[in-house]
Amino acid sequence: MLGCRSTLYQTMKRKKNKSKNTRNKTTKRTVSKTRNSISKKQESPHKEEYEEEEEEDTELGFSLKTSAAPSHTHGVQPLGNLYLNPGSVNSRNTGLGNLQTLTDELVLDILGLLGASHLGVLATVSKSFCVFANHEPLWRNLVLESVNNGFLYNGSWKFTYIVAHYPSFDVSSTGVSGLRVRDFYSDYLFQSWLCANLEMKPEWLERDNIIRRKGISVDEFVLNFEEPNKPVLLEGCMDNWVAYEKWDRDYLVQLCGDVRFSVGPVEMKLEEYFRYSDQAREERPLYLFDPKFAEKVPKLGLEYEVPMYFQEDLFSVLGYERPDYRWIIIGPAGSGSSFHIDPNSTSAWNAVIKGSKKWVLFPPDLIPPGVHPSPDGAEVACPVSIIEWFMNFYMTTKTWKKKPIECICKAGEVIFVPNGWWHLVINLEESIAITQNYASRRNLLNVLDFLRRPNAHTLVSGTRDRVNLYDKFKNAIETSLPGTIDELVQKAEEKKAQQKKLSFWDSVADSKVGAFKFSF
Amino acid sequence: MSSSKSNKIVKLESSDNKTFEVEEAVAVQSETLKNMVDDGCANDTIPLPNVNGKILEMVLGWCKKHVDETVTGDELNKYEADFLDLDQADLYGLLMAANFLNVKGLLDRVLQRVADMIKGKKPEEIRRIFNIKNDFTPEEEEEIRLENAWAFD
User: Fold this and answer.
1) Within 10 Å of residue A411's Cβ, how many Cβ atoms?
2) Tell me: the pLDDT tens digits for A181-233?
3) Which residues of B touch A72 (CB under 8 A)?
4) Which of A45, A106, A252, B90 is most buried (most C-beta within 10 Å)?
5) Are B130 and A96 inside 8 Å of each other by CB?
């Protein structure tokens, strides 16, 4: 079995190497020369050449994963290099002909409308089109659109597609193209390749400022964390879990390797998913995220328990009609979720059974840099990939007064994500986790408010009956726990009134400023 | 008395200094312009340094047609089909303008048009249409052709 790619450990190793190679202000990008055991040509000669021509990065440079993807067309360089090579012609342009005035994104948009055979033909037109037509995300879309019950990943998305749809064609005879594409400069394509192959930098993993607790009581948890809506990392909650003891890749494959789980837009067999996650090298790896795992394999549901802090689970009043609430999450290093707020205003807990995850959390009133939610919250525009966010935005938070909460959650640890908090997660190595979202009395009012919104049909998640969920849930709560909602509303109003009072007296007694402030 | 919004005029200036005035309803077919209007930045003439007059006129014509309630579905289809009967220079200029101005319907149509120019054509035809130089060496071409032989049936 291929070893899991531990991004964290590789990064630590390379840190030592990097300090040896550093000279003056530039840090050369270190590319490990270790051969990977996957049978692909990893050592493309033009990769070394590429390294020499690389732009100087006066920040700390970056490290590539050991098995950086050798797409046929590796050798793409960032546009800046063109200017360092006076007299050089960009083969991107000569090979695109009249289309050269278009941006890379537009060229790819056009190619995204083509079928597989069109792309195959296009690849033979010129070197430039060869690079564009072999752009892996195009082939990923073609594969995912053409299958709904899984795929057998075969080295690359393009090969995967060809093997599936042209079985009589012998891909092994051609192998990975040794085509050297020199003088091809494109920021977009370079960035795409870079993000797919970048390791997490050590400085992105350093900060760990979350509060950790072990063995606290439920009341302590509610008082100190759930009520004030603060995240916390809880230790020791999984000691009795069979899952914590037994679950690893081998066990799961043995138990349910041929069961289909939700992976992005498709449902595929677990063993096929592992085949993919071992081989693929992508900016946004497909993530196994299944809300029906316990229904599909009841044994899985029996081998873990909801930690005692989260036993209050109000959506359970809806029985089978409750929205999705629990997921098994499996993914390779680099997979994860970019910034989002959990839907329906629920709170969540996430237990790492195997592997480790890096978390970055921002409170509800602090939008993460680079993230732009629409006014109604229905859409969030943010960087395409997690790596891209780290590359471009992470360091800006260093200068902020209010810093995000960060941590690395390791196997055996459970993180509490309070409702409304922005969060980003990235797996640092192959990870298996369970997560649940819930409503308790602490966030019930928020949940009801959310479900009642006028655009519920777009915002509410996890159920097909979005518009009626509010009514159903409210009625079910009134039936099972009569008076609860009114009680909470009353409490909330009392709290608000108290806070108003406080701020008035605060300002009256404000001696720091040296004068009374009256805020009538 | 009609609201001031429905009479509001948006002024635009192309890269070659031609000015255009259109009703707000027409202008906001462009998401880019819509954002400016919503943010209150559309009171003065909006300069568009990367769209020339000829192309801008075309884009605005498209937008006008799409807010015109007297136009039938059939008429609109015909309009759209005829609209894209352009030479390549104009077509790509239009594509970039539609992208920059974010006029979704137009953008989708032009992208599809260009894709249709590629579909089903042989490599030599594609090179001819788009004025592309074959920069493969004979050996490279052979290799690439072999690799993609499956696409040539």
Assistant:
1) 18
2) 667 888 888 888 888 888 899 999 999 999 999 999 999 999 999 999 999 99
3) 147
4) A252
5) yes
Residue A215 burial (10 A CB sphere; 0-12, 13-18, 19+):
exposed
Q: Is the pLDDT of residue A53 over 60?
A: no
pLDDT computed for residue A42 by the predictor: 33
Q: For residue A179, which residues of chain B lie inside 8 Å, CB to CB? A: 140, 143-144
- What does the pLDDT look like over A223-241, one tens digit per residue? 999 999 999 999 999 999 9
Q: In Å, how far is B149's CA from the nearest CA of chain A? A: 8
CA-to-CA separations, A296 to A258, A269, A300, A376, in angstroms, rounded: 11, 12, 9, 35
At B152, which amino acid appears? F
Task: Name the nearest CA neighbour of A345 among A306, A377, A301.
Answer: A377
What per-residue confidence (pLDDT) applies to A32?
A: 29
Question: What residues in A contact B95, CB-CB < 8 Å?
Answer: 102, 106
- Separation of alpha carbons A94 and A109, rounded Å: 19
pLDDT value at A287 more than 70? yes
* Rg, Å, chain A Cα set: 26
pLDDT digits (tens, 9 = 90+) for A106-119: 999 999 999 999 99
What number of other Cβ atoms are within 10 A of residue B106's Cβ? Answer: 25
Angle CA B84–B85–B90, to nearest 5: 75
List residues of B whose CB lies inside 8 A of any A CB. 88-89, 92, 95-96, 99, 111-112, 114-115, 118-123, 126-127, 130-136, 140-141, 143-153
> Residue A359's beta-bridge partner residues?
A407, A425
d(CA A28, CA B130): 40
Residue A63 · residue A201 · CB < 8 Å = yes
Does residue A43 have a pLDDT over 60? no
Query: Which residue in the block uniquely carries the two structure tokens 């974010």?
Result: B102
Q: Which residues pair with A64 in a beta bridge?
A: A198
Q: To which residue do tokens 């047609």 refer?
A: B65
- Which tokens sit at A32? 């490990």
CA distance A132 to chain B (A): 14
Interface ipTM above 0.90: yes
Q: What is the CA radius of gyration of chain B?
A: 20
